[in-house]
């Protein structure tokens, strides 16, 4: 089976690539050339056999050439700019996440027999979820109404709206919170502060990245009825826990120890819109079709601890200093501690979308809060695609492309975008 895999050297992409290679697929990775991508590429090529096209999801020519060259039986479209980078560069994320998806679908439909299109979506597409209303709301399913309340989720919703018009088979995989196995050093401040905006008591349904990779690979070849399905991708019931519990599980596994709940923003049980965009999912159908849930939380912790066995002693030694520095980066810790000590009054939590707008003023207000209407979702060229024609990259080839991003991205964001 020939598969074109976009975003192949990201967290989920590399897991999917490994699973596809193990299955014997003829895999071609389609990825933006960057230092981070090159590093992952060099590591993977030592163990696995695959082809690589260094391309650009903002270029119709780059995408079309890749599809024509590969002639895939399936396309696994994982390439995207995710939060918080998506908020920092909204115009670029629009071009990659929405226009790139549309152009890839159009290129695939030019084939005599359009390949199966596996689209990576997100459970954040359902909007704010108040854990105090869990019983009333129920578990999230593929039938749960979309209610995007931020830029990224709105982009994923627009892509999902395009899928039914695709000429071939398609399915959407709504990913939960995905945990990778390796943690490389001190987190960038922007990433850490974004994580701190998620209430500590938020319901979070996570999954081992290896299982997510298997779900993607199985979706490409499954002989069961995946066509037109929206499948929820999360781990087994052991992965359903509070957001802060996940932070401490990773901390203990890596030797960093536990963090105080006060680093996180407070949610208001009386105000559902103050909560983040995640909750527990019903994965019964996705597991029946894709058979991907292999690793429990305990399995994950053991593997992370095994990989960190050489660095863990040093991490434990310096953990107090590192934790103190990270806690100090939290924009909520100082105020939360004053409230805890009775030296300040608790502030009423803002709506989560307002939190994002205050952190990322470059995102247009209507972009981050708007729910797209069906009649606004059309498969046609957008203004951003017209702009793209003026700065289109060179046609894609098997040889490495220039080691730089083809768009102007602020220096503090470039390493995250990679």
Write a concise keyword list for the protein shown above.
single chain; 418 residues; alpha/beta; 7-stranded parallel sheet; 3-stranded mixed sheet; 18 helices; 43% helix; 12% strand; disordered C terminus
Task: Please give a structural write-up.
By secondary structure, the protein is of the alpha/beta class. Strands 3-2-1-4-5-6-9 form a 7-stranded parallel β-sheet, with helices on both faces. A 3-stranded mixed β-sheet has the order 7-8-10. Strand 7, helix 8 and strand 8 form a beta-alpha-beta unit. The protein is globular, with a radius of gyration of 21 Å. The two termini are 29 Å apart.
- Helix and strand content put the structural class at alpha/beta
**What kind of assembly state do the chains in view correspond to?**
single chain
How are helices and strands ordered from N to C?
EHEHEHEHHEHHEEHEHEEHHHHHHHHH
**How many strand elements?**
10
Give the rounded overall mean pLDDT.
87
Shape: globular
The portion of residues assigned to helices is 40-55%
Distance from N terminus to C terminus (CA atoms, Å) equals 29 Å
Figure out the total of helices.
Answer: 18
| Low-confidence regions | 370-418
Strand content: 5-15%
Indicate the radius of gyration in whole angstroms: 21 Å
Major β-sheet profile: 7 strands, parallel
Strand order across the biggest sheet? 3-2-1-4-5-6-9
Nutshell version of this structure?
This protein has 418 residues and is of the alpha/beta class.
